[in-house]
Amino acid sequence: MELIPKEKVDGTVRGLKRKELDSGEVLVFDWEPKLAYAWDDGPAIARYLAELKNGRIIAKKCNKCHRVMIPPRMFCELCWRPSDDWVFVEDTGTINTFVISNVDWKAGRLDIEGGVRPFTPAVIEIDGASRGMGILHLIDDVDPQKIEIGMRVKAVWKPPEEREGSITDIRYFKPVE
Amino acid sequence: MHAHGYTKREIAEVAVKNKRNALDHPSAQLGAEITVDDVLNSEIMAYPVNRLDVSPTSDGAGAVILAAEHVARRLTEKPVWIDGVGHCLDTAYWCTRDLYYPDYVEVAARHAYEMAGIKEPDKEIHVAEPYDPFTYKELHHMEGLMLCPRGGSVKMLTNGDTQRDGRLPVSPSGGLLGVGNPIAAAAMMKIIEIFLQLREEAGARQVPGAPRCGVAQAWGDLMQVGTVVVMRR
Ligand SMILES: [Zn+2]
User: Fold this and answer.
1) Residue B209 and residue B126 in contact, taking contact as beta carbons nearer than 8 Å
2) What would the pLDDT profile of A83-130 be if each residue is shown by its tens digit?
3) Are B39 and B53 in contact (CB under 8 A)?
4) Of the N and C termini of chain B, which has fewer Cβ atoms inside 10 Å?
């Protein structure tokens, strides 16, 4: 079976012309994809998000390596076994790393010259979780140039009535003394 | 930068080296003669990363032919052998692991080196193509591949050791920074470069000294996957 006519392979392939599309010489059809999807949080992240709505951060412990893991997970990926107890941790932490981003999350340029504040996402090691256990969140209420690795920060929560069980129930983290 | 006090000026030298090397690569997208100041003065994307610290968006493809030993000997007088392969995945919770040192690359490298019988990678490997989608990743990966001690990659770079005519040429192809970053094909470009270097067919990119052993490495997914291939002639 010959899928592509030989003369096409031999170099007669060319761009289509507008006329060929308009005249119907080339078949054109419109299709609007319906790409509805649902996301299953799973038991660990579902509880994590539900507790954010309550204004609390919850983690999960592995009784073998004794790590307090955040985000919580139903298994310990280092010990390769189910994790154990749920534990509440603090809403304070320490900046592990950060960037001062002049592009947004869609890689579009922010109007920095026009006074838009750069995005300052950071990995924040949460107090009460094991060392090196961090979450990604935003830092705000501080001059971006003043942000440092090792800086102490605290969560700024949305008011309870605006929370919806999302990581954005924490608006951002801000420096504390 | 935080762990070892590397400066942006030092790290920028990776871009200068790789883009210059890429001038000699026939498929290169961003080969250029640039200076450290050009890198530092390029647009800030996400501090401390500037535009010229970043590889471009690319399209591309690469392929190699694998053959059994007896077939390879029949096909060519200069076969290149895959002597060691290693893969390692670290945890997918990327906020939960060391964001500087790539342990997973070291584990993958140890597997590949053991398979290839390499005990002292910094001496036994003659040419390296670590993954360099960003300037600093070439340095991280040189350390993960144990081509230098932890914290030793910048010294090697600024000494000139990683230049094409240096003690251990790194990314003589021009790397992802210079040739381009066609995701999923980029590491194949690196394997092809080692193949050409070992056959002494790399033309203007050829490293001197008739290299006998090379290593190529890929990085990806949630920044936790390391793949290492050791090749010999
Ligand atoms: Zn464990």
Assistant:
1) yes
2) 999 999 999 999 999 999 999 888 889 999 999 999 999 999 999 999
3) yes
4) N
Residue A68 phi, psi dihedral angles, 5° rounding: -100, 115
Contacts of B53 in chain A (CB under 8 A): none
Task: Give the position of tokens 């969140």.
Answer: A137
Where do the domains of chain B lie, and which CATH numbers do they carry? 8-55+80-232 (3.40.47.10)
Q: What distance in Å separates the CA atoms of residue B209 and residue B81, rounded to the nearest whole number?
A: 19
Contact A144, A120 (CB under 8 A): yes
Instruction: Please classify residue B60 by burial: count the beta carbons closer than 10 Å to its beta carbon, then call 0-12 exposed, 13-18 middle and 19+ buried.
Output: middle
**Cβ-based neighbour number of residue A103 at 10 Å:** 17
In B101-159, which residue ranges form alpha helices assigned H by DSSP? 103-116, 121-124, 135-144, 153-158
A14 residue type, one letter: R
Spatial CA neighbour of B122 closest among B146, B94, B154:
B146
User: Length of chain A, please?
Assistant: 177
Determine contact: B204 vs chain A, CB below 8 A: no
Pairing status of strand B127-129 against strand A68-69: unpaired
Gap between the Cα atoms of A64 and A82, Å rounded: 10
Output the pTM of the full model. 0.88
Count Cβ atoms below 10 Å from residue B202 Cβ, excluding itself: 22
Assembly ipTM: 0.87
Which site among B95, B99, B101, B134 would you substitute to test the A interface, given the most A Cβ atoms closer than 10 Å to its Cβ? Answer: B95
Instruction: Give every strand in the sheet of B213-220, ordered side by side.
Output: B81-89, B225-232, B213-220, B127-129
**Nearest C-alpha of chain A: how many angstroms from B225?**
15
